[in-house]
Amino acid sequence: MPANDHYVIIGNGPAGNHAASTLRDKDKDAKITIVSDEAIPFYYKPRLTRYILDEIDAKDLMVKQLSSYSDSGIRLRLGQPVDRIDPDSKTVFLHHKEEIHYTKLIIATGSRARVLPTMRSYSDCLKFISSYDQVMEYKDDIKQAKRFFIFGGDLVAFTFVRLLSKMNKQVSLLIYPNAFWPFNLNEEMEAAIAQSLKGLSVDLLVKDDIKAIAESGNGYRVRTTKGKELNVDMVFSFNGLIPSVEFARGCGLDIDHGILVSETMQTNIPDIYACGSCAQIYNPDINTYTTSIGWPNAVAQGEVAAMNLLGDHKVIESAGRKYFDLEGVKVKTTWWEDIEERA
Known about the structure:
Layout: E1 6-10, H1 14-26, E2 31-35, H2 48-52, H3 66-71, E3 74-77, E4 82-86, E5 91-94, E6 99-101, E7 104-107, E8 111-113, E9 126-127, H4 132-144, E10 147-152, H5 155-166, E11 170-175, H6 187-196, E12 202-205, E13 210-216, E14 219-224, E15 229-232, E16 234-238, E17 241-243, E18 259-261, E19 272-274, E20 279-283, E21 288-290, H7 295-309, E22 322-326, E23 329-333, H8 339-342
Parallel strand pairs: 1-2, 1-7, 2-3, 7-19, 9-16, 10-11, 10-16, 11-12, 18-20
Antiparallel strand pairs: 4-5, 5-6, 8-17, 13-14, 14-15, 20-21, 22-23
Helix pairs in contact: 1-7
């Protein structure tokens, strides 16, 4: 490998960090840079809801401290969104006009909160809990607010609902069966979830939808298609995630919902790899591309991407078939593991 190799990783989650650790372990001399649009080092996103409740301190959110990057000789650029990449010149263009040149690139930007097309006109009214910055922006407001409207109901939503119940908040929860990407709830699952929430101070809305959301005083008025009118302090959307790949569009990479990669995490452009939930991986068994989410999958993909970037030819293996418990509902899946068990 050339002495002047510069491996650049866009993204500071489990896939990107594990890729960086693997690269440093195998190549002691190369320059390695991680670029992240977030302002803090690698942290446990699944713990954000517990942080809101002050069950854990900020230090308990952290997977790595800043010192661990410098100790490993890894350059960390925080708070630096990427505007675009140019594969021809092998350049990453940052939002504040800096240019970073790479010899090989790994894209591990993860996912962001999904805004439903029908809700885009109300986006200024909506809150999300998918990043540390969002939690820091809303944490005090959540503590002071009394009435909440939550719609969607993805995996994080139920943890958040239980947290609000602990805080003696009034919660209205509108469940969307298709919020549990990549599968839909059937009626039996919906009934089991409703049963599990009966002990909480939650007004559960099913087979209904949002008709309008409008600002009202210091809060919001939500009207549903069934005629319910709710005055609330905060409105939260939990409708799953979508890959964060906007900056990569138009550069020649093959992109569907996420960046299309082979089983070796290689994109269609030489020297560019993608891993984690921003990538769609080709599965020869079903002859299509699929996205896998969950911390262990991201770690495995980051390692495979790094090894293959270094010249290996490792193939990512699908996670074993598992069951997990969603509020008493057993759901069969090939991608989910509970990060709290590992953390």
